[in-house]
Amino acid sequence: MLHLVLRRVLWSLPSLGIVSALTFVLASLTPGDAARVVLGTNTDPAAYDRLRDELGLDQPLWSQYGSWLTGAVRGDLGSSLFTREPVADILGSRLGVTLSLIVGATLLAAAVGVTLGLVGAVRGGVVGRVTDALAMLGMAVPGFWLGLLLILVFATQLGWFPATGLTPFAEDPAGWLRSYTLPVLTLATGGIAVIAKQTRGAVLDAMSTEYVRALRANGVPDRRIVLRHCLKNAAIPVTTVVGLVMIGLLGGTILVEQVFALPGLGQLAVSATLSHDLPVLVGVVTVYTLIVLLSNLVTDIGYGWLSPRMEAAR
């Protein structure tokens, strides 16, 4: 297991370098720059050139990236081109919001999705068809539409949850939980559908094996067969889907944080892109990449725990 972790960490280093370099290149292809955002379109060319020189935007792209990479290796991600605040401090103040969304939505999607898929596989018939229908509906509903619908019903009309904003945990733990309820539900709905569909299919495949039929012939109760054998055999594909869902939620946080006005990394990425604040944008992309790599590592560790033979093969 330690060998697997070390290998994943070593592979993550070139991945971070490639992603950060691509971010610099793609950002340079967008029209405009931070100096133009600060001064506006109708400004003195000399003032524009001076500000570009002050911000380091007049340097070649490879030189800008080299300076950023040199600082990043030392743990310095640079400073915002607008506020001059260290990027690491900006990311640190917003990382908790995004991680809370991702972890909460992943746990909710896994718990509800596995439960629905298991019930649909065991009961079959109408229950199975209803599970499939709910899964297809969950995958088809747009996230922004669902978020606005939840705000309209549960925040505006019923008043059970706040429509936007975030209550700090230190001030009001209950209010903090209420402010995350609708965003997490919005983010988790698609994942619930995918996990439910995969769980039902994996459990049905496990229930159709000769091994399970032999257990039934020997009088082993169905509940014990499902919980101790079928779920164990279905755990590997379900774990894979949960890992993929967690990675997919990263993109969803950008939309959810905009809809619910949450001060997370997704909202920061949008504002940094619009203002051409390259150090902040590269910092956000780097953190997102680290989350993806960590998710893959956790998934691989789950494989090893669920199947030691698979872990040894890796």
- The tally of helices reads 13
Cα Rg: 24 Å
Q: Which CATH first-tier class of the largest domain would you pick?
A: Mainly Alpha
Residue fraction in strands:
under 5%
Kindly identify the CATH topology of the largest domain: MetI-like fold
- Mean pLDDT, to the nearest integer, reads 81
Number of strands: 0
Number of domains: 2
- The CATH H-level superfamily of the largest domain is MetI-like
Indicate the CATH architecture of the largest domain.
Orthogonal Bundle
Helicity range: over 70%
Helix and strand string, N-terminal first? HHHHHHHHHHHHH
Structure explained in plain terms:
The chain is mostly helical. It folds into two domains: 72 residues, no CATH class; 169 residues, MetI-like (MetI-like fold), CATH 1.10.3720. Helix content is 81%, strand content 0%. It has 13 helices and no strands. Helix 7 packs across helix 8 and helix 10 runs antiparallel to helix 12. It is elongated and about 85 Å long. The N and C termini lie close together (10 Å).
Topology of this structure?
Layout: H1 2-29, H2 34-39, H3 45-55, H4 61-73, H5 87-123, H6 125-140, H7 143-157, H8 173-207, H9 210-217, H10 222-259, H11 265-275, H12 278-306, H13 308-313
Helix pairs in contact: 1-12, 5-6, 5-8, 5-10, 5-12, 6-8, 7-8, 7-10, 8-10, 10-11, 10-12, 11-12
Short structural description:
The chain is mostly helical and 314 residues long.
Question: Key features?
Answer:
314 residues; MetI-like fold
